[in-house]
Amino acid sequence: MTPKINFFYYKINIMIKKKIFVIGGDGFCGWPISLKLSKEDNEVTILDNLSRRNIDNELGTNSLTNISTIEERIETWESKTGKKINFYNINVAKEFDRLVNLLKEHSPDTIIHLGEQRAAPYSMKSSKTKRYTVDNNLNATHNILAAIVESKKDIHLVHMGTMGVYGYGAVPDTIIPEGYIDIKMKNSSGDFMDTKILHPAYPGSIYHMTKTQDALFFQFYAKNYKIRITDLHQGIIWGLHTDETKLDEKLVNRFDYDSDYGTCLNRFIMQSAYDIPLTIYGTGGQTRAFIHIKDSAQCVNIAVNNPPSSGEPVKIFNQMTETHNLLYLADVIKKVNPDTKVEFCDNPRNELVKNDLVVSNKQFLDLGLKPIYLDEEHIKEIFDSIKSNKNRVNMKFIKPMSFWKN
Ligand code: USQ
Predict the structure, then answer these.
(1) Rounded distance from Cα 397 to ligand 1 centre (Å)
(2) What distance in angstroms lies between residue 264's CA and the mean position of ligand 1's atoms?
(3) Ligand 1 proximity of 288 Cβ (cutoff 6 Å)
(4) Is 180 in the active site?
(5) Quick one: which of 44, 248, 391, 393 has the fewest CB in 10 Å?
């Protein structure tokens, strides 16, 4: 090899910050996160079995935006930015040996794990979807952990979890801490000893339950194998574009509006934009945590760059920026479109009619997150960007399709 070529390789190496696998990198969160990390000069490899696209086929649903194939997405990104993203079509819940080989071959510094079925309503639809959610999510998480051990590589695992593991205001008048609570336990002499444990799990759906089970896998593997693990307890995402997905129409993110995969604020904005009454379940007194899609990608970027040390307990962040109840969401939307109507529907879910929710997100704020807060300007931006997709709206998917009582 000539000195010139050596220099060339050296240059490439110092330009690449980290080698990152994004498992689930074709999905609603995974795609903008992959682009963000690629833009930040990381070498990004997407591992995805395209299950989200297949579930659209199964349900007959579609993204409101017309998303490109993963191949077109990656080609477009490279032609716009000169940055390459690799892609492997792999089911990590089933193809363990292939996953281990990929880890050995690429030696990623970081794995972002979004390879789970992520809709609470879908997970409650039937025995089939319950079993699929449990089989897929638990096997995916455990295979990734076991593959990291098997590969003998020092890999930081960043997992996309959910605020729903805490329940929503399950312990009234408390601030939800970031993952752990301080407790006192009586010892054999009857004295109270200080200790710290994972916040008790209060899952409200099968999907949320899989994330509470993930937490035990993480605790075990961090302690016994000293794997560096970060768990992000994310709130409800809203918004559509990031700076990267806006670069070309072929990079557009998916926007779900059906009652299984569409999150409430995105659904309400879309309903208002097309003169459909907002489908508020129950009284609208349910309070939830929210985060804009751009902030979600930024938080993952921060987490990637601030890993725990080997042997440290799992690092847990609350990945949310504000809490609101559903009636408040309707009020903000009405400010943008005063013609917005509301329909209070029978609640298909089993949840509190009203709750308070106070959450700490101090760690991300301390690490420099500057949140995008819900306001009329941002809602208007989403209105404008979805206005041209009227022909893709199927009214059949507006009303609840999954029921907690099944
Ligand atoms: N809701 C309505 N009308 C609708 C849809 C939802 O009133 O048309 C209500 C629900 O009853 C619920 C609230 O809005 O009280 C939130 O529902 P959602 O569908 O927006 O969110 P959820 O099912 O909780 O799940 C979403 C994501 C999931 C993520 C979770 C974060 O799909 O992946 O983990 O938000 S959290 O809610 O903080 O657990």
Answers:
(1) 16
(2) 6
(3) yes
(4) no
(5) 391
Q: Compute, in angstroms, the gap from residue 236 CA to the centroid of ligand 1.
A: 6
Has 207 been annotated as catalytic?
A: yes
Residue from 281, 328, 355, 395 to probe ligand 1 pocket by mutation (most atoms less than 8 Å from CB): 281
- Asked, for residue 8, whether it belongs to a domain, the answer is no
Residue 114, domain member (yes or no): yes
The residue whose C-alpha atom lies closest to atom 3 belonging to ligand 1 is 280
One pLDDT digit (tens) per residue for the chain, 406 residues: 444 545 444 445 457 899 999 999 999 999 999 999 999 999 999 999 999 999 999 999 999 999 999 999 999 999 999 999 999 999 999 999 999 999 999 999 999 999 999 999 999 999 999 999 999 999 999 999 999 999 999 999 999 999 999 999 888 899 999 999 999 999 999 999 999 999 999 999 999 999 999 999 999 999 999 999 999 999 999 999 999 999 999 999 999 999 999 999 999 999 999 999 999 999 999 999 999 999 999 999 999 999 999 999 999 999 999 999 999 999 999 999 999 999 999 999 999 999 999 999 999 999 999 999 999 999 999 999 898 898 999 999 999 999 998 7
Other beta carbons less than 10 A from residue 78's beta carbon: 13
In a domain, 403, yes or no: no
**Domain ranges, residue 148:** 17-397
Dist. CA 312 → ligand 1 center (Å)? 32
Q: Domain tally for the chain?
A: 1
Catalytic-residue membership of 162:
yes
Is-above-0.85 flag for pTM? Answer: yes
Q: Which of 162, 230, 279, 287 is catalytic?
A: 162
* H and E: helices and strands count for the chain: 13, 16
Whether 215 maps to a domain, the answer reads yes
The CA distance from 213 to 260, in Å, is 22
Q: What phi and psi, each to the nearest 5 degrees, are found at residue 343?
A: -120, 115
Q: How far apart are CA 70 and CA 228, in angstroms?
A: 30
Supply the DSSP string of 127-195, one letter for each residue.
Answer: HHHHHHHHHHHHHHHHHHHHHHHHHT---EEEEEEEGGGG-SSSSTT-EE-SSEEEEEEE-TTS-EEEE
Any ligand 1 atom below 6 A from CB of 233: no
